[in-house]
Amino acid sequence: MSSHATAVDARGLQVGYRNGRDAVTILSDVDLTVPTGEFLTILGPSGCGKSTLLRVIANLLDPLGGQISVLGGAPEVARRSRKTGFVFQDATLLPWRSVLQNIRLPAVVGGHQAQPLSDSRVAEIIDLLGLSGLEDRYPSQLSGGQRQRVAIARALVDEPDILLMDEPFGALDEITRDRLNDELLSIWRDTGKTILFVTHSIEEAVYLGQRIMVLGANPGRILNLQDLRAIKTETNACKREDPAIVAEIAAQRELLARAS
Ligand SMILES: Nc1ncnc2c1ncn2[C@@H]1O[C@H](COP(=O)(O)OP(=O)(O)O)[C@@H](O)[C@H]1O
Ligand SMILES: [Mg+2]
After folding, report:
1. Ligand 1 site residues, Cβ closer than 6 angstroms
2. Does 2 score more than 70 pLDDT?
3. Residues with CB under 5 A from ligand 2 (ion)
4. Dihedral of CA 20/26/31/33: which sign?
5. 14-28, 29-43, 46-60, 104-118 — which is least confidently predicted?
6. Containing domain of residue 140, as a range?
7. How many domains does the chain have?
8. Does some domain include residue 96?
9. Residue 125 in contact with residue 183, Cβ under 8 Å?
10. Residue 19 in domain
């Protein structure tokens, strides 16, 4: 776990893309402090810049302006020391490698492997993700949910302090997604990691997040940050049918309708 109190701190951050001399701003005036250990979910209309923001935090893209620090330093330092792990929507597994080999691969985000992974640590993570017995299978022999589990396992073996998850369960059926939501919450409770989780599902955002951030488009900005702790237990648990949760989903739906 990290000794930094703040996982992500952005001040007047501006993100977008450079094309030669031109720059296209996608999000501006992003002021955001994510304390270490927080579970933050991120909602916003398609194309508003959710993935772009995660890319900047992961140091896969330089910001256009403003300030951003990750675990108290430059995003590059966090990436190089493998403190940030990324899980994408489509599990980016190598099809010609087995589950075990995929998990042992250096993750997508990161520099060199700091130290070789111990077999017992890898076994622990395989067990944690319910992948025991599937180690020798190839990605084509797995269900969508199993592939996402492998992608999460792969992000976890580096023991990153911050997990950036970009619609990781977006392609899964609802039952599988609900199950993985609960597994993710339990991993989060056990490990104390900071999680920034992008989703297009309002229900999922409310169910998972201690806070929800809604991004808006035209101009791209933070539209709303809502603290959900008051309607959840201390361990960030809730019941989907709880009236307060149902009301929050409706409120977020309304916000989102105004976001594009
Ligand atoms: N590599 C890129 N170069 C230029 N523009 C891009 C690039 N990637 C994404 N964009 C544009 O940036 C905007 C935000 O994209 P993205 O962050 O992927 O949105 P979201 O994840 O919220 O759906 C979109 O308009 C998209 O077309
Ligand atoms: Mg995206």
Report:
1. 17, 26, 44, 46-52
2. no
3. 51
4. negative
5. 104-118
6. 35-59+72-214+223-257
7. 1
8. yes
9. no
10. no
